[in-house]
Specification:
Layout (H helix, E strand, L loop, with lengths): L1 H26 L35 H5 L1 E2 L2 E2 L9 H19 L8 H4 L11 H4 L3 H10 L13 H19 L29
Antiparallel strand pairs: 1-2
Helix pairs in contact: 3-7, 6-7
């Protein structure tokens, strides 16, 4: 029993010292936001940032990655390699943020459009098929027409992943037999398809 009692007393002592330490930290001299200060001549505790200060992880010098621009023009390339994982991430984000308007095939007939919202242009429109990736990035970041900015909802890398998936959707509606790997052609109805013609899934 004495051993357990000693352990209990030691634990209480350590807990008490921890509380005292936290109290000392709370009561230490410090200035709170908007509190008056006798130290500075303008008596303001809240100070303006030093010129040129950049918050951690907010030095967005890569214009390609963060703004979709290269030499002031819409980027025609992606700022990082597009892998299967990137496409799957893009599909997931597209289905969450884009499909309500654009639908999952990118035709522009999403559920809120079916309920009266303005019909967006199909991603399979020739104009959008020929638009560079930077064009789509600008629309996601800054909004376009009826579409609001998604800068606060969609992370920078996810914006590019979505654009990569849009490219995959566009290809899916305009692919030819030559675009299909030979190992996958057995699942297609190739009886009426010649190289260069659109490939149509058998199911």
């Amino acid at each position: 029993m004495r051993i357990y009692f000693s352990i209990f007393v030691l634990g209480m002592a350590l807990a008490g010292s921890g509380c005292e330490l936290r109290k000392a930290m709370y009561d230490q001299p410090k200035l709170r936001p908007l509190q008056k200060s006798e130290f500075f001549s303008d008596e303001r505790a809240s100070r303006t940032l030093i010129e040129g200060t950049v918050a951690r992880n907010q030095l967005h010098e890569d214009d390609h990655l963060y703004n979709g621009l290269v030499n002031g023009e819409h980027a025609t390339t992606f700022p990082f390699p597009i892998t299967r994982e990137v496409l799957l991430r893009g599909q997931e984000r597209f289905n969450i943020y884009c499909s309500p308007c654009h639908d999952r095939a990118g035709m522009g007939n999403g559920m809120i459009v079916q309920r009266g919202f303005k019909h967006p242009v199909s991603f399979h429109d020739p104009r959008l098929q020929s638009s560079p990736p930077g064009y789509f990035y600008n629309a996601i970041k800054n909004g376009f027409g009826q579409m609001p900015s998604y800068a606060d909802q969609i992370h920078v890398n996810d914006r590019w992943a979505i654009i990569a998936y849009i490219r995959a959707l566009q290809l899916s509606q305009n692919a030819t037999l030559d675009d299909v790997p030979e190992s996958e052609r057995s699942s297609l109805d190739t009886a009426q398809i010649k190289p260069g013609q659109a490939a149509v899934a058998a199911h």
